[in-house]
Design brief:
This protein is an all-alpha fold. The protein contains 19 helices and 2 strands. The protein has helices spanning about 1-20, 40-45, 55-65, 75-85, 90-105, 115-125, 130-135, 140, 150-160, 165-175, 185-200, 205-220, 225-240, 245-255, 265-275, 280-285, 295-315, 325-385, 400-410, and strands spanning about 265, 320. Helix 9 runs parallel beside helix 11 and helix 10 (about 165-175) packs across helix 12 (about 205-220). The protein starts with a helix and ends in an 8-residue tail after the last helix.
């Protein structure tokens, strides 16, 4: 029964979403986040491990591939150093290749958060926004999981450029990575505004996209008690098309509200169109010629009665406002305070990233030196056993250049750093 209900509701929601997209045409897209939120000066002046990108490129490439196979594991700090020192678009091409290879190596678990942030931030800085979103979406090939601050930068960058297609892709990715939680209100508001603009842009939605945007609307309005948030929460359920989930969620929200559960008329219309319109005709169509009912009519009737009661409750408290008039004041009134929290902690975050990278590099250097010492000690022991007098070992000879080359080939890194 549940599968039948979902299929039917999705069909209605598809029509609903298409009609909704034509209600308002977007003439302009507002810039939401301030320039201060980007912390550009802090980013450009950050400490990072010094390196020669040419030498580092050779080092990483030589470890990744040898006759089509992985020769040595690449340390996460080497990859992080490369990504943090990229300055040109040709570096992005090489950087993306490194990220791909690292993802498919045994050490991919150790990819640093600072590497993900630096990669996306540099892509945006070098006007390679498509490269940023494509690598984030393709988790199988790249395995990038940005934090909320990085996601926020992506969303606002695309909104500023009027690139709603990439903006809504990021919003859907945030939903899939489950970062649109009530304790991340700024991310919620940016995703909500993105979906609002996208739905009003006149684009025709495919069924899967419509369901994903519906879930984004649900997640980005959860925990918020405001006319715009409540209304879009309901519209999200209508677009998702899950009647049972809609009834449970709305019942909980209405029962727990300290004030009347007021929404705009469009939200009620969306709900009725998605789940209630044309039910009698479809009910007859779902009964086979021999009279066998292929789903639980009694259970559906109970679900529909509960939904009708909820719709009736909503219709008693409809606001005359519109979402287009209400959404921007609601969002912009909260931005300054929410931005400040991220702006204040960003310098310390970058300082901590540098500290962790420096410590990892020192451990890597120390591990290399320890390994060299072990090899030399073993060489000395073997020499003493071969030619030294018992109890009076001769001093180990000076190593030739060929001996040093052989020893160097045996050096290994400790790759978990």
């Amino acid at each position: 029964m549940a599968a039948h209900m979902c299929k039917r509701a999705v069909f209605r929601a598809k029509i609903l979403a298409t009609s909704y997209s034509n209600l308002h045409k977007v003439t302009c897209i507002r810039t939401l986040l301030s320039d201060s939120y980007y912390c550009n000066d802090v980013w450009m002046d950050r400490q990072k491990l010094p390196t020669s990108l040419g030498e580092l490129t050779k080092k990483i490439e030589s470890k990744f591939m040898s006759k089509g196979t992985i020769k040595h594991l690449v340390s996460s700090v080497d990859l992080d150093t490369y990504i943090n020192n990229m300055e040109h678009t040709n570096h992005l091409i090489q950087g993306q290749d490194f990220l791909y290879k690292y993802r498919h190596s045994p050490s991919s678990f150790y990819l640093r958060d600072s590497t993900v942030h630096a990669w996306i931030r540099t892509c945006l800085q070098l006007n390679s926004a498509d490269q940023a979103v494509s690598t984030v979406i393709d988790k199988t090939q790249y395995g990038l999981f940005p934090d909320n601050y990085t996601f926020n930068l992506m969303l606002d960058t695309y909104l500023r450029a009027g690139d709603l297609e990439n903006a809504v892709k990021v919003a859907m990715e945030m939903m899939e990575q489950e970062v649109l939680s009530p304790d991340q209100r700024l991310s919620q508001l940016l995703a909500l505004y993105t979906c609002h603009q996208y739905l009003n842009s006149g684009v025709e939605l495919e069924e899967e996209t419509q369901k994903q945007i519906g879930q984004v609307l649900i997640d980005s309005t959860r925990g918020q008690d405001h006319l715009a948030a409540r209304s879009y929460h309901i519209i999200g359920h209508a677009m998702l098309g899950d009647c049972d989930k809609t009834v449970k969620d709305l019942s909980k929200m209405i029962d727990s509200g300290s004030t009347k559960f007021v929404v705009v008329q469009k939200a009620v219309d969306h709900l009725k169109e998605a789940f209630l319109s044309g039910r009698s005709e479809e009910t007859q169509a779902d009964v086979e010629d021999d009279g066998i009912v292929i789903y639980d009519v009694e259970a559906e009737d109970k679900l529909m009665n509960n939904l009708k009661e909820l719709v009736s409750c909503l219709e008693q408290n409809v606001s005359a406002d519109t979402l287009s008039d209400d959404i921007e004041p609601y969002i912009t009134s909260q931005l300054s305070e929410l931005e400040k929290e991220h702006i204040d902690i960003y310098p310390s975050r970058l300082a901590n990233d540098y500290k962790l990278a420096s410590e990892a590099m020192q451990k890597q250097i120390q591990a290399k030196e320890d390994k060299i010492d072990q090899i030399k000690a073993k060489e000395r022991e073997i020499w003493e056993l071969m030619i030294g007098e018992p109890g009076k070992p001769d001093p180990a000879p000076e190593l030739s250049e060929e001996d040093k080359r052989i020893i160097a080939k045996q050096e290994k890194y400790i790759y978990r750093y």
